[in-house]
Write a sequence for this structure.
């Protein structure tokens, strides 16, 4: 059974354009993290791409860091671009798997959580590599495999259906970055704890940003009342002192270069094992 099609995902994100700004806590948290890392980037880009820009929440921050650069925002949902309103950024509707940009035309790609919606990140990373000039940099964030692990464990004894998307771990993702042709990947991870009054609040937040269970093994029908009751019972140990559900979200932030990093001359080619990817600043 195939994953949710990109057409279906585009429609869901279009529907979420009206509610995204009120429910984008995680996007905002990681957006601010990636923007803060730009303070340490030795790069003066002429053209900056916000890939998966949504309603343009990162435009102001990117313009503040690079006031002389041309800013391009690409999203696959036209309604998201319409929600961005007036901006000096050039906004394009396009698929991250086939970017409507020439080879080597971008100096910096800012990619906040877009990879989390890609069942296979490699084609998107390869497109990023194609459009990056040398030296050029991609900064990205995505989700790690411990995201909503409490829900996965609660559902596990209740059948073979998958209910939670499995994301690649940090080292596997580093390997995918290299496979796509990007050099010197640096990635780090962090576990966040989010709390909700109940599962309905979590589901509402996920719907509001266009997130769904897209796994091939997801249940195509209705979940029985008894299974739902048993799953909720298994989640009871996750409640905090105020009775709220505490759930884990693992986030991964990283970077990769096209060509030699800015400020560094290209030398003899070296090979760095992915398991030696370090947790350091950019």
């Amino acid at each position: 059974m195939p994953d949710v099609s990109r057409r279906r995902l585009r429609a869901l994100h279009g529907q979420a354009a009206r509610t995204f700004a009120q429910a984008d806590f995680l996007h905002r948290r990681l957006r601010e993290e990636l923007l803060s890392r730009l303070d340490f980037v030795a790069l003066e880009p002429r053209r900056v791409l916000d890939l998966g820009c949504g309603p343009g929440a990162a435009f102001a921050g990117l313009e503040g860091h690079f006031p002389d650069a041309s800013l391009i925002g690409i999203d696959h949902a036209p309604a998201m671009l319409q929600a961005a309103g007036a901006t000096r950024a050039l906004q394009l509707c396009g698929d991250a798997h086939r970017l409507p940009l020439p080879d080597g035309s971008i100096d910096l790609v800012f990619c906040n959580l877009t990879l989390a919606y890609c069942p296979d990140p490699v084609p998107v990373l390869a497109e990023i590599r194609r459009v990056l000039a040398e030296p050029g940099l991609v900064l990205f964030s995505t989700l790690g495999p411990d995201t909503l692990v409490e829900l996965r464990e609660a559902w596990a004894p209740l059948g073979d259906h998958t209910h939670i998307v499995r994301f690649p771990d940090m080292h596997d993702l580093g390997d995918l970055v290299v496979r796509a042709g990007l050099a010197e990947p640096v990635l780090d991870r962090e576990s966040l704890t989010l709390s909700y009054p109940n599962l309905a609040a979590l589901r509402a937040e996920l719907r509001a940003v266009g997130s769904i269970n897209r796994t091939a093994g997801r249940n195509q029908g209705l979940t029985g009342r008894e299974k739902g009751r048993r799953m909720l019972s298994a989640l009871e140990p996750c409640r905090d002192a105020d009775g709220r559900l505490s759930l884990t979200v693992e986030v991964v932030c990283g970077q990769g270069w096209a060509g030699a990093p800015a400020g560094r001359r290209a030398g003899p080619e070296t090979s760095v094992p992915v398991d030696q990817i370090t947790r350091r600043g950019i």
The chain is about 30% helix and 20% strand. The radius of gyration is 19 Å. Residues 260 and 267 are 8 Å apart (CA to CA). Confidence is low (pLDDT under 50) at residues 214-222, 265-282.
